[in-house]
Every structure is written in C-alpha cells, then in structure tokens.
Amino acid sequence: MSSRLSQRVQQPKSDGAGLKARAEAGTVVGRDAFSTTYATDAGTTIRLESTELLNFETAPGTWAEISTDVVKDGDRWVAPDHPLSPSFADEATADRAVLVEADGHSVSFSLEDSNAARAEPDSSDGKASDTLRFSDVRADVDLEYEVEPGAVKETLVLGEVPAVEASWSWRLDVGELTPVLGEHDVLELQDAEGAVVMHVPTPVAWDSSGVKGERESALINPAVTLTQEADGSWAYGLAVDPAWLASDERAYPVFIDPTFQWGPPHQRSFKSDGAVYMDQSILAIPVRTTRTGFGGRIRGLTHLRRIRSSSATRRCLPCTRGRAPPWRMTRRSIRARAIAMTVAARGCRTCPSLTGEGGRPAKASAGSL
After folding, report:
1. What does each C-alpha distance from 170 to 115, 150, 195 come to in angstroms?
2. What domain range is 118 assigned to?
3. Which of 310, 274, 106 is nearest to 202 (CA)?
C-alpha cells in the first residue's frame, strides 16, 4: 500500500503515455474487460483502464488481450481473438456477409442490392491488418469493415453525389434477440431479460472538409428505419438528406458509418446544430465542450448504467456474462488517459464484496492513475 501511495505522491503529473510504457515493461498479473494490471520491477502495481474493451474472456475467469487483426480462414475472413468473433464473407453479396457473436447469440448482417465485390485486406493505421475493403459495391460506392476492440465499424464511402436516392438497407438476422430502435436512433439488440447484448450507435455521415487543427468535417445524422420482413429477418435502413449531399459545401468522399458494437451504449455527444453521436470513435472529445470549425459546439457525456441482476441466477451481469463493470469519466482521469470505474452490483452471490449493507449497491472506485 505504501509503495502505491508514494508513487502517486512522487509523480502526480505523470502523463498517460509514460505510465503505459512503465506498466507494459512489467508483468501482467490481472485482466478484465476494461483494464489490465501490471506488476513492475519496483514492486508497485499499475492498472491501465480504457473506455474501449482491452481484453475478452476465453473461458470463465480467463482473459486474453483483444486483437483486431483479420486473417483468412477457408472461404471467410475472421478475427479470432475478439469479443465479437467477427467473421466476413469473401464476397459482398453473400447472405451472411458479416457474422458477430456475443453472450451465446449470433447476429448476421448484409448490405442489400450490392455488386459482387470481393474483399481486399487493408489497414487502418499501416500496422494492424484490421480492415476489409469491397470496392464498387454500387456505382462510386466502396464498403469498408474495420475491426475495432469492441466493435465492427462499417463505412460506406461515397466518391461523388449519388445519382439515385441516397439510401441503403441491410438484412439483419438477430436469432433470439429482439431489435429495439430507441432514443437517438440507437439500435439495441436485447435478450429475453431485456439486457442489451449488442447495439448500433446513432449512425453519422461526414464529408472530407475537415482540416486538422482548424475545423471538423461537416456531419449529419442519417434517417433510420427498422422493419421486419415476412421471413422474420429485419431490414435496417439509412437515408441521407440529398440536399446535404448535393450542397456546394460538400467535399467528397463522404462517409456513412453504421457500427455494430459489443454491449450497451454508454457515451453520447451532441453538436449544437442538432447532430447526435453515440459511442462514435470519430468523436474523440469526451466530457467537455469544443467549438468546431463550423461555428457549432460538441458536448460529450458519458453516463453510468447500473448493472441489473439476473432474476434467473441472482448474479450480476459481470459474473453471468463476463462483462466488466460500467465506468465513468473524471476530469483528472481524462488528463491521465485513464478512466475511473464505478462498480455497482445488486444481490450478487458470486461477488458479495461489491454489495453494501442491506443489499444496497456499493461503489468501489479504482481511482485515477
């Protein structure tokens, strides 16, 4: 305990990058979904925490680091070391073009009315093989899938103003899950108990007018529809305002981003012109207000959801599903690139230490690094 306290006192202004380097030079002694704990040569422990998933459960109580690398496996492309176990068909027209799994549930989705484009492996950062590109799925439209730590990010890339109606539809097979289109057009895939197993954040479309350090790209929320087909599958549709796409202010290419993400949504952001973002990686400005180059302001909020107990097992969701507890951001942890986590459990027999007197939830903060 004393070594931990002395480390905090001696280095109160240590930045996140330096702390991460020191941690990774040590030995991993613990993992959960959102954190990895290291033991250092100095006898201290450092826990690195993230807003994104860091690890996934390979077996009950056994965790491994997530990899976003995509490799060829037979006639499909897979990311084997990933919480969603994503699998991609080699051709865009396949019935089950993309498969994702979570909590024992399997979901597939495919872009409808697509040309027979084949997958081309690529990289989002020049290092990881985390991207598949399908060229010309429609006229002047490419389709990209990027595997992120807790999501499969799908992006339509428009090379020019669409000659026909700017709308797209995906066939969605959700198995035993129930799709619910909720506030801000967030699509939640819920199990029989109402727990959100996966979700599609508020979709966004943005152009190429952004200039680094000066202004952000122009953004807009597409219109979203969800309809059930006669065969029991669902059609998830997006439509972008044609006037916005045809505006003289648009800079192409334009990008349209629906993303399949693990677990429930936890972060929402608002722009003063009305645009809304939920868990979008293109917006990396959490818990503060930022002026954009278009005279608008973006306000980012991270909210805490209390863990529901499972009525069947009387165990909290982290125990029954291997999920990490929800977390919340603090100003200090943002500066250190760390996230303070708040644990809440209700009547859990597996982790009674997390339950306060009288069965009330108890909070246990990991603290800011």
Report:
1. 14, 21, 23
2. 65-284
3. 274
